Amino acid sequence: MQKDLKIGMVFGGVLITAFLLWLSTRPCLSVKSRMLGRPPANSLQEPADKVLVNTPASEVINEIEPEKIKTQRFHIIRRGETLSEISGLYYDSAGKWQKILDANRDVIKDANKLKTGTKLIIPP
Hints:
- It is a single chain.
- This protein has helices at residues 2-24, 31-35, 57-63, 83-91, 97-103; strands spanning 73-76, 119-122.
- The chain has 2 domains: 2-66, no CATH class; 73-122, Membrane-bound Lytic Murein Transglycosylase D, Chain A.
- The chain starts with a helix and ends with a strand.
- It is mainly alpha-helical.
């Protein structure tokens, strides 16, 4: 009985080790792959040769079209702020307030009455 228990423990340890090694070599389960939203290599969404595995992030970014990599800036209106002040913060010119107003027509009804706490998109 003692010998069977030892053999079972060793065999179980070997199986667990083999499974963990297999699991750690799956590229679709890596943290980098999940953060970049890549599908698994065996996915039906893309052929396996199109999946970027172990590719540095700088190369992936270079493959994305430049016009899609626009950073979006936001500003939350504080009490007493005007569009001219906000324009001065982001564009170093108070005269570009119209640009902010045009980008936020759905949020701002009256440019003279800004609601505190409103989130504005600051266009580039």
